[in-house]
Design goal:
This is V-type ATP synthase beta chain. The chain is α/β, with parallel strands linked by helices. The protein contains twelve helices and 22 strands. Helices cover 32% and strands 24% of the residues.
């Protein structure tokens, strides 16, 4: 244990940053306790050390700090989270303190919130299906245990409702292992926080969930800690308690804005669009904490949700997130304006691991073929609809008209399932067949004839 020293050498305070002079033996990321002149206590973290100066990032902001009279203690260890299996079913603030009026936790252990880097050799390949109960995800962009699959949304789109629906409905099929949801709300409004808490309480899903809620009026630095605290909890439940944990983090854009704010306070040279140059590296330290480990029964699966500023998918936040994660689910204004819920735009959406989590023994043997056929038919139907708008209905062939009928039905019945309907993968597959039966069999070129006969009956 490092020797704990106390200093009264605060030389300046700028925004959320405090500079302490004449320090020795101080380390990066170390937790700092500050006692103010009136006896109030605050916490911070060492951002950098240069010779005998330490830059400390304050969690609760810097207002009211008297430079001469404040005492600073360096604790010798990083920010740690007290973890216990009793966290499941509880609601915490963004720093891991109970918010629900329940009892204080009795910690089983204290874990560094930055986690441990996982040796790639000890990673296991994600290949088991997670059912979210949402057809557009389960059937067409399958989520796999240990995967990181972000949702790209836009302002005004119902990503909160989608997040709550996934938190309520997600299960691992055919596995009696314990399943938990860790929900990290980052920089959200009080109304949004109420919505999530109320929804999970009302449906009983709170009993298997851990909520961390960081509100928009909490300090920016706390926003940086919240996803790390949530992931530390998830890793503990997964790798030490053998649970399958789904981590939902919303909204990652607020996290990146907080990084930008702190980077500006440190007077760093900004990168693209004013975000720090290390945004990619920083995001990867969060997203790469998903996965399965060889020899461990549990798993950590991530669904980060982010709103794309100005709906621009080339913006640094969705752009870099797309590089690190295995696909994306994209929500669309056009579908939402047509009254479809959830407005998942399946054509640009993608789950790179979908083939690993589907098929015989995992979902059903006809999964991949029907998925490919639905994608192809929907794309062709959309083209036919556009053609009809330009040239008029009369320009369409009979087959084109069937594709238009298919597309309308597909959107109305398959995508538009609402935020309360929980469909099993069987139901999604069967509905897919029902819709494909609108098209002539000669058009179902991506499915083997014997499979078509099996599901749609033989034709003499």
């Amino acid at each position: 244990m490092a020797h704990i020293k106390e200093y009264r050498t605060v030389s300046e305070v700028v925004g959320p940053l405090m500079i302490v002079d004449q320090v020795s033996g101080v380390h990066y990321n170390e937790l700092v306790n500050i006692t103010m002149q009136n006896g109030d206590k605050r916490q911070g973290q060492v951002l950098e050390v240069h010779h005998d100066k330490a830059v400390v990032q304050l969690f609760e902001g810097s207002s009211g700090i008297n430079l001469a009279k404040s005492k600073v203690r360096f604790t010798g260890h990083p920010l740690e989270l007290a973890v216990s299996e009793d966290m499941v079913g509880r609601i915490f603030d963004g720093m891991g303190k109970p918010l629900d009026g329940g009892p204080e936790l009795i910690a089983e252990k204290f874990l560094d919130i930055d986690g441990q880097a996982i040796n790639p050799i000890s990673r296991d390949y994600p290949d088991e299906f997670i059912q979210t109960g949402i057809s557009a995800i389960d059937h067409l962009n399958t989520l796999v245990r240990g995967q990181k699959l972000p949702v790209f949304s836009g302002s005004g789109l119902p990503h909160n409702e989608l997040a709550a629906q996934i938190a309520r409905q997600a299960t691992v099929l055919g596995d009696d292992g314990k399943f938990a949801v860790v929900f990290a709300a980052i920089g959200i409004t009080f109304e949004e926080a109420e919505f999530f808490m109320e929804d999970l309480r009302k449906t009983g899903a709170i009993s298997r969930s851990v909520l961390f809620i960081n509100l928009a009026n909490d300090p920016a630095i706390e926003r940086i800690a919240t996803p790390r605290i949530a992931l530390t909890t998830a890793e503990y439940l997964a790798y030490e308690k053998n649970m399958h944990v789904l981590v939902i983090m919303t909204d990652m854009t607020n996290y990146c804005e907080a990084l930008r704010e702190i980077s500006a306070a440190r007077r760093e040279v900004p990168g693209r669009r004013g975000y720090p140059g290390y945004l990619y590296t920083n995001l990867s330290t969060l997203y790469e904490r998903a996965g399965r480990l060889v020899g461990k029964a549990g798993s950590v699966t991530q669904i980060p949700i982010l709103t794309m500023p100005e709906d621009d998918i080339t913006h640094p936040i969705p752009d870099l997130t797309g590089y690190i994660t295995e696909g994306q689910i994209i929500l669309s204004h056009a579908l939402y304006n047509s009254g479809l819920e959830p407005p998942i735009d399946i054509l640009p959406s993608l789950s790179r691991l979908k083939d690993k989590g589907s098929g015989e023994g995992k979902t059903r043997a006809d999964h991949a073929a029907t998925m490919n056929q639905l994608f192809a038919a929907y794309a062709q139907g959309k083209q036919a609809k556009e053609l009809a708008i330009v040239l008029g209905e009369s320009a369409l062939s009979d087959t084109d008209k069937l594709y238009v009928a298919f597309t309308n039905q597909f959107e109305e019945r398959y995508i538009n399932q609402g935020f309360t309907q929980n469909r099993s993968i069987e139901e999604s597959l069967n509905l897919g067949w029902e819709l494909l039966s609108i098209l002539p069999r000669t058009e179902l070129k991506r499915i083997k004839a014997e499979v078509i006969d099996h599901y749609l009956g033989k034709v003499d």
